[in-house]
Amino acid sequence: MSVIDWNSIKPSFNFVGWENYQRIFTSFRFQSSMRNMLFFSIFFIAGVVISGLSLAIFLDRKVRGKWIYRNIFLFPMALSFVVTGIAWRWILNPAAGVNIFLEKIGISPQWYTDTAILFGFDLDQIEMGIPIALFSVILAAIWQMTGFSLAMYLAGLASIPKEMKEAAIIDGANSWQIYTRVVLPQLKPITFGLVLIMLQISLKNFDLVYTMTGSGPNFVTDTPAIYMYEATFKSNFYAEGAAVAIVLLVVVMMFVLPAKLREGRNQ
After folding, report:
1. Segments of the chain with pLDDT less than 50
2. Which residues contact 213 (CB under 8 A, 6 or more apart)?
3. Cα dist. 131→45, 136, 176 in Å?
4. What is the pLDDT of residue 142?
5. Residue 222 · residue 32 · CB < 8 Å
């Protein structure tokens, strides 16, 4: 479908080659969505890995009532992205939610309605940089998936033999050295798998962003998945939507296939 001219309600199957791809790659919206996908993936993955690992190390130590903390941290993972998106849309609503309290101290952030770009510079049709509005979506996504990261790291920490830590203590290692030189190297396979899973989620992100912000003003929170959906099912640009879908598929495969090949060689 991506190489035909079916871009209306009436089906048309005339071959047009790369015309649909040229259209999307030169469009402002597609370039904006690819920029957003890039920065969302970077900050989302880093946030999930760091927060999950930090909480796992905290719960791995002798903390009173840690089963309560574990349940609290794991709770968001039980929710769907749709529920999370609706909840955080209200929480970060510029005219309600947490802003009611922030306004009392003179702070009125726009959250997901802000169109500013951090460290922006012109690149083709878009301003390349970090959209401020994207941070609200990243925050909600990290809150949702930290429980998954926590569960993986807790399982990894439980599998590390206590003898290794005891040997490090005998050798004079302090707590920082035990975690940086003994524990963290043992968690590399888990971190690799976690990054791969979160990468797939971030590249295909749709439901959270769609319910929370949509494409946003000036497409500052748009994603290729939302672009594909709206082009195909709202504007009836079936061939154009198919081209976006193929590009998204190729991007996902660029990261997944090397990882699968590496996993196969290790086995």
Report:
1. none
2. 89, 112, 133, 136, 137, 221
3. 17, 10, 36
4. 95
5. yes
Are residues 215 and 222 in contact, defined by beta-carbon separation less than 8 angstroms?
A: yes
Domain 19-266: give its CATH code.
Answer: 1.10.3720.10
Q: What does the pLDDT look like over 131-142, one tens digit per residue? A: 999 999 999 999
Give the max Cα distance, the chain: 76
Lookup result for tokens 């992100």? 205
Q: What are phi and psi of 128, to 5 degrees?
A: -80, 125
